[in-house]
Amino acid sequence: MDYARLTDSFTEMTELLLPDDTNNLGRALGGAVLHWMDICGAVAAMRFAGNQCVTASIDHVDFLSPIDLGEVAVIEGYVFNAGETSIDVRVDVRAEDPRIGESRATTTSFLTFVALDEDGTPTTVPDLVCETANEEALRERALNQRREQLSDISDTLAE
Protein backbone atom coordinates (compact mmCIF):
# COMPACT_ATOMS: atom_id res chain seq x y z
CA MET A 1 0.00 0.00 0.00
CA ASP A 2 1.35 3.42 -0.93
CA TYR A 3 -0.65 5.36 1.65
CA ALA A 4 -2.36 5.00 5.02
CA ARG A 5 -4.98 7.20 6.65
CA LEU A 6 -4.52 8.98 9.95
CA THR A 7 -7.63 7.26 11.33
CA ASP A 8 -6.15 3.83 10.49
CA SER A 9 -3.49 4.50 13.11
CA PHE A 10 -5.78 5.74 15.90
CA THR A 11 -5.16 3.78 19.10
CA GLU A 12 -6.77 4.07 22.52
CA MET A 13 -5.67 2.17 25.61
CA THR A 14 -6.91 2.27 29.17
CA GLU A 15 -5.06 1.37 32.35
CA LEU A 16 -6.53 1.22 35.84
CA LEU A 17 -3.97 2.79 38.18
CA LEU A 18 -3.13 0.12 40.74
CA PRO A 19 -0.67 0.26 43.67
CA ASP A 20 2.25 -1.32 41.76
CA ASP A 21 2.36 1.70 39.42
CA THR A 22 2.11 4.39 42.10
CA ASN A 23 4.54 6.36 44.24
CA ASN A 24 4.23 6.84 48.01
CA LEU A 25 1.63 9.58 47.40
CA GLY A 26 -0.70 7.18 45.56
CA ARG A 27 -0.05 8.82 42.18
CA ALA A 28 1.15 7.30 38.93
CA LEU A 29 4.87 6.84 38.56
CA GLY A 30 6.22 8.88 35.63
CA GLY A 31 7.95 5.78 34.29
CA ALA A 32 4.66 3.86 34.19
CA VAL A 33 2.99 6.68 32.24
CA LEU A 34 5.92 6.83 29.79
CA HIS A 35 5.69 3.04 29.36
CA TRP A 36 1.98 3.28 28.47
CA MET A 37 2.67 6.15 26.08
CA ASP A 38 5.42 4.17 24.34
CA ILE A 39 3.18 1.12 23.89
CA CYS A 40 0.26 3.18 22.58
CA GLY A 41 2.56 5.03 20.17
CA ALA A 42 4.12 1.79 18.94
CA VAL A 43 0.71 0.25 18.24
CA ALA A 44 -0.37 3.37 16.31
CA ALA A 45 2.87 3.29 14.29
CA MET A 46 2.53 -0.44 13.53
CA ARG A 47 -1.09 -0.02 12.43
CA PHE A 48 0.06 2.74 10.10
CA ALA A 49 3.17 1.03 8.72
CA GLY A 50 2.01 -2.57 8.65
CA ASN A 51 5.42 -3.50 10.09
CA GLN A 52 7.16 -3.78 13.42
CA CYS A 53 8.18 -0.34 14.71
CA VAL A 54 10.74 0.68 17.31
CA THR A 55 11.01 3.85 19.34
CA ALA A 56 13.58 6.33 18.01
CA SER A 57 12.78 9.27 20.28
CA ILE A 58 10.33 10.77 22.74
CA ASP A 59 10.04 14.55 22.77
CA HIS A 60 9.85 16.66 25.91
CA VAL A 61 7.28 15.43 28.45
CA ASP A 62 5.63 17.58 31.12
CA PHE A 63 3.36 15.94 33.68
CA LEU A 64 0.61 18.54 34.03
CA SER A 65 -1.74 16.71 36.38
CA PRO A 66 -1.39 13.54 38.45
CA ILE A 67 -3.22 10.28 37.92
CA ASP A 68 -4.43 9.06 41.30
CA LEU A 69 -4.76 5.50 42.57
CA GLY A 70 -8.03 4.02 41.32
CA GLU A 71 -8.36 6.40 38.38
CA VAL A 72 -8.31 5.23 34.78
CA ALA A 73 -5.52 6.44 32.53
CA VAL A 74 -6.77 6.89 28.96
CA ILE A 75 -3.92 6.92 26.45
CA GLU A 76 -4.66 7.95 22.85
CA GLY A 77 -2.26 8.06 19.94
CA TYR A 78 -2.28 8.67 16.20
CA VAL A 79 0.22 9.18 13.38
CA PHE A 80 0.46 12.80 12.31
CA ASN A 81 3.53 12.72 10.06
CA ALA A 82 5.62 10.21 8.16
CA GLY A 83 9.06 10.31 6.57
CA GLU A 84 10.92 7.71 4.53
CA THR A 85 11.20 5.15 7.36
CA SER A 86 10.08 7.22 10.35
CA ILE A 87 6.65 7.80 11.81
CA ASP A 88 5.67 10.63 14.17
CA VAL A 89 2.92 9.86 16.69
CA ARG A 90 1.08 12.22 19.03
CA VAL A 91 0.17 10.58 22.33
CA ASP A 92 -2.22 12.20 24.83
CA VAL A 93 -2.91 10.93 28.34
CA ARG A 94 -5.84 11.88 30.50
CA ALA A 95 -6.99 10.75 33.93
CA GLU A 96 -10.58 9.68 34.31
CA ASP A 97 -12.49 9.16 37.53
CA PRO A 98 -15.17 6.65 36.50
CA ARG A 99 -17.11 7.16 39.74
CA ILE A 100 -17.98 10.77 38.95
CA GLY A 101 -17.45 10.84 35.19
CA GLU A 102 -14.78 13.55 35.17
CA SER A 103 -11.52 13.55 33.22
CA ARG A 104 -8.54 15.86 32.89
CA ALA A 105 -5.49 16.10 30.65
CA THR A 106 -2.29 14.85 32.25
CA THR A 107 0.35 14.92 29.49
CA THR A 108 1.00 15.02 25.76
CA SER A 109 4.14 14.10 23.88
CA PHE A 110 5.36 13.35 20.40
CA LEU A 111 7.15 10.09 19.72
CA THR A 112 9.10 9.03 16.64
CA PHE A 113 9.26 5.40 15.54
CA VAL A 114 11.19 3.63 12.79
CA ALA A 115 9.54 0.86 10.78
CA LEU A 116 11.53 -2.36 10.41
CA ASP A 117 11.28 -5.20 7.90
CA GLU A 118 11.52 -8.90 8.79
CA ASP A 119 15.33 -8.63 8.98
CA GLY A 120 15.23 -5.71 11.41
CA THR A 121 16.31 -3.20 8.76
CA PRO A 122 14.56 0.18 8.45
CA THR A 123 11.93 0.00 5.73
CA THR A 124 9.83 2.57 3.90
CA VAL A 125 6.47 3.57 5.29
CA PRO A 126 3.30 4.62 3.48
CA ASP A 127 2.46 8.25 2.81
CA LEU A 128 0.06 9.78 5.32
CA VAL A 129 -3.33 10.73 3.88
CA CYS A 130 -5.94 12.83 5.64
CA GLU A 131 -9.25 12.16 3.90
CA THR A 132 -11.48 14.27 6.14
CA ALA A 133 -11.42 17.77 7.56
CA ASN A 134 -11.23 16.24 11.05
CA GLU A 135 -8.13 14.20 10.15
CA GLU A 136 -6.46 17.27 8.64
CA ALA A 137 -7.31 19.32 11.75
CA LEU A 138 -5.78 16.65 14.03
CA ARG A 139 -2.65 16.58 11.88
CA GLU A 140 -2.29 20.36 11.80
CA ARG A 141 -2.86 20.62 15.54
CA ALA A 142 -0.12 18.06 16.22
CA LEU A 143 2.31 19.68 13.76
CA ASN A 144 1.73 23.14 15.26
CA GLN A 145 1.99 21.99 18.87
CA ARG A 146 5.18 20.05 18.18
CA ARG A 147 6.66 23.08 16.40
CA GLU A 148 5.76 25.29 19.40
CA GLN A 149 7.19 22.79 21.86
CA LEU A 150 10.48 22.51 19.95
CA SER A 151 10.68 26.30 19.65
CA ASP A 152 10.14 26.72 23.41
CA ILE A 153 12.89 24.19 24.11
CA SER A 154 15.37 25.89 21.78
CA ASP A 155 14.52 29.29 23.33
CA THR A 156 15.20 27.88 26.79
CA LEU A 157 18.51 26.39 25.68
CA ALA A 158 19.57 29.71 24.15
CA GLU A 159 19.08 31.55 27.47
From TrEMBL:
Ranges annotated as spanning the membrane: none
HotDog ACOT-type domain span: 7-119
Keywords: Hydrolase
Biological processes, Gene Ontology terms: acyl-CoA metabolic process; fatty acid catabolic process
GO molecular function: long-chain fatty acyl-CoA hydrolase activity
Transferase recorded as keyword: no
InterPro entries assigned: Cytosol_ACT, HOTDOG_ACOT, HotDog_dom_sf, Thioestr_dom
Entry-linked Gene3D superfamilies: Hotdog Thioesterase
Gene Ontology CC, one term: cytosol
PANTHER family with a match to the protein in the record: ACYL COENZYME A THIOESTER HYDROLASE (PTHR11049), CYTOSOLIC ACYL COENZYME A THIOESTER HYDROLASE (PTHR11049:SF24)
Stated name of the protein: Acyl-CoA thioesterase
Protein species of origin: Halosegnis rubeus
Taxonomic classification: Archaea, Methanobacteriati, Methanobacteriota, Stenosarchaea group, Halobacteria
